[in-house]
Amino acid sequence: MGSFQSLPDDHHYRTLSKKTGFSLEQIGILHNRFKQLSLNEEILRRDDFNKVQDLKDNPIRSQIVEAFFDRRNFHKDGVGSMEEIGFEEFLTVMSYFRAPALHTTEEQREVIRRAKLRFLFNMHDTDNDGTITLEEYRHVVEELLSRSGSLGKETAKGIADTAMLEVASISVGQMAPDEFYEGITFEQFLKILKGLEIETRMNIHFLNMDTTVLCK
Amino acid sequence: MSTSVGFYLWRTVFILCLVNPLMQGLNGEESNHHHKETNITGLQIVKFQWHHVEAPYLVILWVFVAGVAKLSVIELNLNVTSVIPESGMLIIIGFILGGIVWAADMEQTFKLTPTIFFYYLLPQIILDASYFMPNKLFFRNLGSILIYAIVGTCWNAAAVGLSLWGCYEAGAMGQMDIGLLQFLLFGSLIAAVDPVAVIAVFEEVHVNEVLFILVFGESLLNDGVTVVLYNVFDAFVALGGPRINATEIFNGIVSFFVVAFGGSFLGILFAVLLCLLTRRTKNIQIIEAGFIFVVGYLSYLTAEMLSLSAILSITFCGVCCQKYINANMVEKSVTTVRHTMKLLANGSETIIFLFLGITAIDKAIWVWNTGFIILTLIFVFIYRIIGVFFLTWILNKFRLVPIEVIDQVVMSYGGLRGAVAYGLAAMLDEDRIKEKNLMISTTLIVVYFTVILQGISMKPLVQWLKVKRASHSDLKLVEKLNNRAFDHILAAVEDICGRIGDNWWTRGWNRFEEKYISWLLIKPKARKNRDYLFSIFHKLNLEDAINYVSQGEQQGSLAFVRSEQAANIDFKKQFDSEFGDMMPDMMGDMNYEKGIENNAVTSFVRDSIPSVCLDIHGQDRKKSVDDFNAHHLLQQHLYRSRKHHRHKYSRSHFSINQSADEMQEIFQRTMRSRLESFKSAKMSVNPAKKIKHYRKDPTHMMGNGHAESADNLYKVEGDTALNSETSAKKKHFTLDTYRVKAGIENPAFMPDMDMDTAMQSPPWLTETEMDTVVAPSQRAQRRLPWTPSRQRRLAPMRISNSSTDSFLMADVFITEDVSEEPDQKDQTKM
């Protein structure tokens, strides 16, 4: 543990810590991991993620990896995706998965909630137009179900459609007859997932200990 | 309300007054029975043989009384039960009943004995609780639960025991024949939070799921711990103080772990056995539901026999088997299990609380020692709070999502003691523990205090503290999809940041489970269709089909089902073609009889999924009205073929006879009736009015008339090969025909047929779909219900506008709109 704190870019770590809310130890561990993935370089490419063994079996792998390169996750009005990311970006994405502190006010909670949901939303909204269209959603569902074998593409489509209909009926309610449901907007997305308590769900336990040796 | 209170109480009292003296009289008679019998000469036509039936009769009579008591508690509803929880009410009714029994007998002849409680009442409650345990939530919080259950309980036992001993030594209780070990024994029996009481109170205050699982899981597991502690201390007491040395204490600790983990392991073994059994019951589905009760009880008894923890054994049996047996058994058996489980658990819970009340009215057990009783109450309350706060403080250092202070308050306040404590107290050996009666009466007071007083104040407290409540009862499909996505995302991020975390373990376990355990325990066929999301989708579809039918029936015709609340959505593609491939296999297993019965299944299943609340009765009560209506309608209205009435008797099958021809027959009949209706429609004058009239009187003539009406109706031979246009119009005038021709007022008959034709026979389904191409009215046409099955059905309707009679139908719909709105609201909510 102690070995990271004496790294030369201590100051750099501190600014990162302020920005992302990770502790210095955690940043140290994550930096180690970053280097491990990038083979000791300062940038990380998409190929590098392929080296993660356990990730191979993940059905929505491509979307997750894509999220690391999505500009929207770094700046409020970023557009498009990057080819390579530095450690800061890596850390920023990771910070979406930080658990909330013990004492948070209602407003803080709401902010965290929005940020996390925005991240999820961006993940689904691949073409970056502010709505998750049926096509996009179908794609997600298909990938989600792609590992469960027995379910065909048609079923996945059916499930996606049902879910979409559900969303439409919840969020829009009555529509004029000739109206056309575009897709899920972010506001609707927030509304639908109101009951999910995402601020307590989308968390990962970042330890202060280095376990990178154990899992490759 | 007070009149109804009075009424129900009177009823209960009446039954008791009537029954008890009778029984007493009979008991008296019994003694001189022999004498009588010898005197009898000749043949008696009717004999009064009380003593033959006495034991089972009394048992069943008390069950009956308990049922009536429960009924009266429920029926009182609103005013009283919103303030006093049901369990408290039952105890109070128990006081009254006990008073009556005592007045009749001058002694308490009926009371809750430990044997009855531990062997006949408790197992099913625990089995029910564990079978309905939200597994994911439970295992995710297992660490915290174990800490509370083991460390918390030990702390409570030790702290209460030692403090009481200290106070006794200080002279706060006067002179008693009691020592340190006895105090510890008492502490261990009073330490455990009682699952029965906890469920009963917490189900009425819908707290958030984490809080619920913590309290509930703790109460379930710590029963095991208490029993173990109790046995250890009981052994120590038997051994006597001086003979206890370090070895004995060490043995005690070892036995604690052996008993607890041995019991759990035994439960898991039985769960495996159960799963393997249900794999093989394909050909005798009628008894497969019974296995879970038998094996569950067997695991309880076996553990008891091996002096392992029986409660833990049956708990783990239920928790571990649920997933696999639900996949293995057919849906009907699963429903049977669910209902039976709830029935048994609810029944024993009622009996337990009632008897806890009745037992109190007994002079013999009441020994009053103010110091002891008051101090026990205080210590139990305070140490619970200290224990919870201290353990949570430690746990919060490790928990990903910390437990908040408010939740901790509710947790400590929710430390209700119950029948397990009483059962253990009643089991004490009077020879060794001289103050047994004092312990029993103190336990009873603690139970009454916690169940009634804390139970009453729990709801206001939760409201006052603004505890996070369970958000909503029903998870939406979108949310479930998102949950699924979450699991993958979290696991992936853990992989990327190179950490072996909870998600890594979860996923590892899931893979292992998928690969080996499911392979071993689940039928190959069931394994395939077991995907979580698919089953939800499947259920949604079933629900929609059912809603569709019942809505159609209420409106008189299936063709114009539409929903005011539902959104109108237009996707780029036609759903028709997309669902074409998928639907047949949905239809395949949604055959005729299931169509009827699944109504109950789906609504039940739907309730259990949210996994927020394990309530035993809430679910049933909440949905029962809905369920009943829909179910009734379905049962009455679905097409009944003539074959249906030819029953064959069999103990192992009670399915409806069906043949392949039946579908064809139904189809032809439908077609005929359509032609028929078309003809008469031309003559009919005022359709709108008539339909309205039918609706006012929906249950009229539902039950009978199917068969005869069918005969009447279909005498006119129609051309079965119809072109699409005529059939389209006909369909909507069926009702009139029905009225005119058969003279039977059953508006729902036609929809039945339609339902059947659509649901049962995919091959020509598309044909009928095309036949129903109709433009109902400009408005109705566009209001599309929001679910795929409906979408699919209704999709073709949008295409064509070519009905000449649409103006007539427009009228019909305007009248119907008004009265059907509330119903639709209900249904869209589902």
Task: Provide key terms for this protein.
heterodimer, A: 216 residues, mainly alpha, two-stranded antiparallel ribbon, disordered C terminus, B: 830 residues, 0% strand
Q: Could you give a quick summary of the protein structure above?
A:
The complex is a heterodimer of chains A (216) and B (830). Chain A has helices at 10-20, 24-38, 46-49, 61-68, 87-95, 106-124, 134-145, 153-171, 186-192, 198-201; strands at residues 44-45, 84-85, 131-132, 184-185.
Describe the structure.
The complex is a heterodimer of chains A (216) and B (830). Chain A is built from ten helices and four strands. Chain A is mainly α and 216 residues long. In chain A, helix 4 crosses helix 6 and helix 7 crosses helix 8. The radius of gyration of chain A is 19 Å and the shape is globular. In chain B, helix 3 runs antiparallel to helix 4 (86-105), helix 8 runs antiparallel to helix 17 and helix 28 packs parallel to helix 36. Chain B is built from 36 helices and no strands. Chains A and B meet through helix 2, helix 4, helix 7 and helix 8 of A and helix 19, helix 20, helix 22 and helix 23 of B.
